[in-house]
Amino acid sequence: MSTYEHGYLIVGCLMLVALVVASTPLLLAACLRPRKPSAIKQATYECGIESKGDSWIQFKAQYYLYALAFVIFDLETIFLIPCAVALNQVGFFAFLEMTVFVGVLLLGLVWEWSKGVLEWR
Amino acid sequence: MSPVFSNLLAQPGVALAAEAAVKIAVVIVVLMGMVAYTVLAERRICALIQDRLGPNRVGAFGLLQPIADSFKLLLKENVLPGHVNRFWYVLAPTIAMAPPLLTLAVIPFGNTLAGFNLVIADLDVGVLWIFSIASLGVYGIVLAGWASNSKYPFLGGMRSAAQLISYEVPMGLSVVSVFLLVGSLKLSNVVAYQAGTWLIFKAPLAFLIFLVSAFAETNRLPFDLPEAEQELVGGYNTEYGQMKFALFFLAEYANMIVASALIVTLFFGGWQVPFVRVEAFGPILAGALGVAAFFVKLLAFIVFFIWVRWTLPRFRYDQLMRLGWRVLLPLALLNIVATALALALKLRA
């Protein structure tokens, strides 16, 4: 097995260890602690007053706009990374291509900005 | 050591597995210990800043306080609110706690000691691994908010999701300029590159953007809106108690430690000791000094995180979004173009 695969095998083991470490306290506590449920203890917490209505309240649609913008710019980051790593080998032409790519996305950002998408109201 | 045992260790696969197991165990034990004592440090430093004493009764200087706290939380009654979505409600704390443990895999905490590389797994994709795992942390928080089936946690979860994804973009873009300079994603290469000058001096703007984003990604003040006590009671963890709450709490501190470790590795030379040529002291001492240098820098950043929390007030939500999308994002993009231009011109010359 190469060192390349070896690294990922170790990371896989670490993943299992992390899940065990993160869930052991819960299991341990489940064995140790008392459990005496009552209606008032199990009620929804709302600063002492009785909860009214559904908890599925309305929230701003703007969250979705930010989520969309996030997808665009996060993908951009992923595309930029190989370009950045290889710039030393590819040289000036890669830089020009990269600038065009960033420029197009910068235009998108300016457009979003002018449309008021990035303004939280 | 018995001959059977040493023969077993002589086989290459077994030796590698043993090495990995020891490293994983040490790193996780050290991290959990640091988390426990960072909580204590936070309480003591906060008290110092506010001219109080802080917890100082359990053991000398309150040093046994984390143990007392963990026993208290373990023995608290298990209240499972009637209205929650049980499966995700119980699973969410685990999902929040696992990512910081996983990101540690690729962070080198020293050069070599007795022939062993002091990193769990030096993946070629290093930083990408950290970003991909760190962004899983948002699932824990959003699931907690959603599964609690209650108004405050729901609002906290929504806010948190928007905040975390907003600051992930400038964070990711700011490190692109680091890769431009280093030409590799591997964290050991990033540290080796900083043997002469630390990257903070070569990419100061990237450092600044990364630092601000790191504060937002770890939900620390001035960006602690997901759990803003005065408006959301406790945010996404309002309906949580006992060990489940403790896991969210510990995850926050583990995230802070991992973020500090990442800042140290990317911009402050990782385990490089400044001004001193440690190779002159022989391999063992040089390796130990490297580990010590890494931890000194790490502790300095943890104290900085705590200090900032008790100094700055909280942002408003619109200010938070404006800073992320209108200031940090364009700055990070321009920083990339400027760095690439400088490099390209240097290549041409």
* Strand runs of chain A, count: 0
Shape annotation of chain B: globular
The helical percent of chain B reads: 55-70%
Number of helices of chain B: 14
The total count of helices of chain A amounts to: 3
Shape label of chain A: flat
Structural class of chain A: mainly alpha
Mean pLDDT score of chain B: 84
- Determine the strand fraction of chain B and express it as a percent band: under 5%
Radius of gyration of chain A: 25 Å
Strand content of chain A: under 5%
Task: Determine the N-to-C terminus distance of chain B.
Answer: 60 Å
Sheet bearing the most strands of chain A, described?
none
Query: SS-based structural class of chain B?
Result: mainly alpha
State the distance separating the first and last CA atoms of chain A: 56 Å
Protein traits:
heterodimer; A: 121 residues; mainly alpha; 2 domains; 3 helices; flat; B: 349 residues; two-stranded antiparallel sheet; globular
Describe this protein's structure.
The complex is a heterodimer of chains A (121) and B (349). Chain A is mostly helical and 121 residues long. Chain A has helices at 3-32, 62-90, 92-115. In chain A, helix 2 (62-90) runs antiparallel to helix 3. Chain A is flat and about 70 Å long. Chain A starts with a helix and ends in a 6-residue tail after the last helix. Chain B is built from 14 helices and 2 strands. Chain B is globular and about 60 Å long. In chain B, 69% of the residues lie in helices and 1% in strands. In chain B, a hairpin with a 2-residue loop joins strand 1 (112-113) and strand 2 (116-117). Chain B folds into 2 domains: 1-75; 80-348, no CATH class. Chain B has 349 residues and is mainly alpha-helical. Chains A and B meet through helix 1, helix 2 and helix 3 of A and helix 2, helix 3, helix 4, helix 7 and helix 12 of B.
